[in-house]
Specification:
This protein is an alpha/beta fold. The protein has one domain: 3-Layer(aba) Sandwich (Rossmann fold). Helices cover 31% and strands 25% of the residues. A 5-stranded parallel beta sheet has the order 5-6-7-3-8, with helices on both faces. A 3-stranded antiparallel beta sheet has the order 2-1-4. A hairpin with a 2-residue loop joins strand 1 and strand 2. The two termini are 19 Å apart. Bound molecules: adenosine-5'-triphosphate. Adenosine-5'-triphosphate binds next to helix 1. This is Peptide/nickel transport system ATP-binding protein.
Length: 203
């Protein structure tokens, strides 16, 4: 279980973006999170993935101290794949960061073999996002946070990616938080849906 207790964060001292979030995510559970622009959803996602340190509260993953040493079992896939990929690496090398990867899963995500030899600048944002997903789903990964990951894709590509990801989430019993402004997408993909305002207000 991924557990968040009494979480608070400020970019400027004393100006809380949120200051008392309580949240939990079970293995195999897919939870949707929506909310107005600028309320703090991405900030919350970055803290859970260990990119930002909270100013208050704590996170535990399967009862263990967080963030752990070594590879993080909580992986974030964000809105801007190009920002998280080394521009000087070919895609094959980018993928190797996650250790072993399954060719079957790459095919399901619609990753073409031919793309493996390209540099990130030679792929579209949607194609890059598929690599970010494949890289995030390494063997050690137990929880995934998907922050507006398919916003840049057309309906067919969105459906293909969600089908592949949800199947893997089910097979591996990963916990997944899906952040999106698109309520219909959340209704289709998630077991339960929370509003960020509710998450902050309920605490
Ligand atoms: N590095 C930063 N320094 C200062 N303020 C920041 C920084 N990053 C974000 N903010 C502010 O923190 C608030 C929350 O931003 P955040 O990106 O978490 O919102 P969000 O809910 O994810 O928005 P959106 O739905 O538009 O992506 C916003 O008011 C934003 O301007």
């Amino acid at each position: 279980m991924l557990t968040v207790k009494n979480l608070g964060f400020c970019y400027q001292p004393g100006q809380w973006i949120f200051n008392k979030i309580e949240f939990s995510l079970k293995p195999g559970e897919v939870v949707g999170l929506f909310g107005q622009s600028g309320v703090g959803k991405t900030t919350f996602a970055k803290i859970m993935a260990g990119y930002l340190k909270p100013d208050k509260g704590w996170i535990a993953v399967d009862g263990k101290a967080y963030p752990p040493k070594g590879r993080n079992p909580v992986q974030l896939i964000g809105q801007h794949p190009e920002k998280t990929i080394n521009p000087h690496w070919r895609m094959k090398q980018v993928l190797s960061e996650s250790g072993e990867y399954s060719n079957k899963f790459l095919r399901k995500l619609g990753i073409s073999k031919e793309w493996m030899h390209r540099f990130p600048s030679q792929l579209s944002a949607g194609e890059l996002q598929r690599f970010c997903l494949a890289r995030a789903i390494a063997l050690e990964t137990k929880y995934l946070i998907a922050d507006e990951i398919t916003t840049m894709l057309d309906a067919i590509a969105q459906a293909q990616i969600w089908q592949a990801v949800l199947q893997l989430v089910q097979q591996r019993q990963l916990g997944m938080l899906v952040i999106s402004h698109e309520l219909p997408l959340l209704k289709q993909t998630c077991h339960r849906i929370l509003s960020f305002e509710e998450l902050v207000g309920n605490s």
